[in-house]
UniProtKB/TrEMBL annotation:
Organism, scientific name: Selenomonas ruminis
Positions of substrate binding: 252, 289
Record GO terms (molecular function): diaminopimelate decarboxylase activity
NCBIfam families cross-referenced by the UniProt entry: nspC
SUPFAM superfamilies to which the protein is assigned, alphabetical: Alanine racemase C-terminal domain-like (SSF50621), PLP-binding barrel (SSF51419)
Record's protein name: Carboxynorspermidine decarboxylase
InterPro entries: Ala_racemase/Decarboxylase_C (IPR009006), De-COase2_C (IPR022643), Nsp_de-COase (IPR005730), PLP-binding_barrel (IPR029066)
Signal peptide span: none
Gene: nspC
Keywords assigned: Decarboxylase, Lyase, Pyridoxal phosphate, Spermidine biosynthesis
Amino acid sequence: MTIKEVPTPAYVVDEGALEKNLQILKDVKEQAGCKILLAQKCFSMFAEYPLIGRYLDGATASGLYEARLGHEEMAGENHVFSPAYRPEEIEKIAAICDHVIFNSFNQLRRFGPLVKRIQEMRGVKHGIGLRINPECSTQDHAIYDPCAPGSRLGVTAEAFAKAVEETPELFDLLSGLHFHTLCEQDSQALAVTLDAVREKFGSWLVRDNICWLNMGGGHHITRDDYDRGLLIDLVKKARQEYAVEVYLEPGEAVALNAGYLVTEVLDIVENHGTHILLLDASAACHMPDVLEMPYRPPLKDAGEAGEKAYTYRLSSCTCLAGDIIGDYSFDRSIVSGDRLYFEDMAIYSMVKNNTFNGMALPAIWRMDKDGACTLVKKFGYEDFKGRLS
Ligand SMILES: *Cc1c(COP(=O)(O)O)cnc(C)c1O
């Protein structure tokens, strides 16, 4: 089957594009001498983990469930960072994670010694880290800025110094520091951030017990105009300056532009001169970042409103008035039954979707390098009912 024939709605992941990204990431890690992990919160299509595991060093998780998924499905290292762990899950996490990264000295004090004991029994060394907050905002999407005043994410330099002064033995538990401050950014933003990290945390990073530095995600490494040479230089410099192993954990960069959401036009209505397409895909259900981020997803063979001859508002068959994807134009008029292809739909899509309005979840397909599509999983009424009671 080709992408033109798959039943809609469907996510179709383009394995050729995915592998192209993975090759770029592999080249970067080899040249920079660092390790790169998949951030599963962005892309958890585990059918592709065997492929991803051939290029990257493992996976990172936001909590127990993702950590389990990484442990079960991905070869290589398994890392986790959560803003707060629950007491009933920390032992399970320690049993399957090579790096457990805490968000506060409170959590480190509460769980650090137990995690260390469990990891040591498994022969895992240097497995405990702490997230720092360099308080260096390099972009202006407030919802994606962990460095904003009042942020809960990461320990500030001031809090760090105070905690180490009061309880120096807690610092000794640490083998690494972690920061994650970027979102869809270039390596220039990393350069600025690393200057802030040096200024605020450099004296801790050179300590003997600190042997790794995790620079988080948000590095848009596989985007065409990303400055990979600068990234490689920055990583090399940090490795040398602090005598640490460096980790990067991109999500988006792994599966950037590597998937489609295929949808069909169910109806067309008109209101005050606006022609509105009702699709069997929904922004609210199937691409929530369109409303949350917000952004306008690229659409194959379409232009900005008014750019081509026929302009339509793309909307969905939910009852939410604001479930609007955007205004797009086409070279020809659109009729019911036409299929549209949203691009860049592998990332932050299937991991975030929902069945609001009882909407069907799109099936998940893989497309090989020759364009042949194979069904990976489809969903039905039971998936909707199964998470209700
Ligand atoms: C979201 C996140 C990532 C991945 O971010 P991308 O923007 O998808 O690259 C990595 N690490 C942490 C801690 C995150 O919260």
